């Protein structure tokens, strides 16, 4: 049963990836921008994060995220009012997850390619970024804006 569910998640994510195929991965305008969901599928890859929705309502939010890249990635839920992609980086090419104006809520720690993980968080209303903070990855585009209403 567990495996069946995992396959379902991967299929959903794969079909989503097909829809966005060919689009500029930094241009989320091709996606239904007003999709609101508290159950979100997505994937991380070099270099981006694709999601089935960019908005949720306050409360429990579940992310099922696959790594469709060729190297390990992480997936962090960060509450911040910085513009997407604009959290200041340190010399190590990462940003301080305990820095000012940044609140890391929870994360899927670095996970292997062709696997998926589920992260459940409780989110209050506000502006968020979903991102990977491995050295260089955020700068390379591994972020997505996310709003909780
Ligand atoms: Cu990454």
Automatic annotation (TrEMBL):
Residues 114-148 form the Sulfocyanin-like C-terminal domain. It holds the Pfam family SoxE. The keyword Metal-binding applies. Gene3D superfamilies: Cupredoxins - blue copper proteins (2.60.40.420). Keywords: Metal-binding. The keyword Metal-binding applies. GO terms for molecular function: metal ion binding. InterPro entries: Cu_oxidase_CS (IPR033138), Cupredoxin (IPR008972), SoxE-like_C (IPR049544). This is Unannotated protein. It comes from freshwater metagenome.
């Amino acid at each position: 049963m567990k495996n069946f569910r995992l396959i379902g998640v991967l299929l959903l994510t794969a079909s989503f990836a097909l829809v966005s195929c060919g689009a500029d991965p930094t241009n989320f305008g091709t996606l239904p921008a007003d999709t609101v969901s508290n159950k979100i599928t997505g994937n991380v890859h070099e270099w981006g994060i694709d999601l089935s929705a960019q908005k949720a309502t306050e409360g429990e939010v579940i992310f099922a995220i696959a790594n469709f890249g060729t190297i390990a990635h992480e997936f962090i839920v960060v509450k911040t009012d910085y513009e997407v992609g604009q959290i200041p980086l340190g010399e190590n090419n990462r940003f301080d997850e305990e820095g000012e104006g940044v609140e890391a809520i929870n994360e899927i720690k670095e996970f292997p390619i062709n696997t998926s993980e589920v992260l459940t968080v409780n989110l209050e209303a506000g502006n968020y970024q979903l991102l990977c903070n491995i050295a260089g990855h955020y700068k390379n585009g591994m972020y997505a804006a996310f709003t909780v209403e």
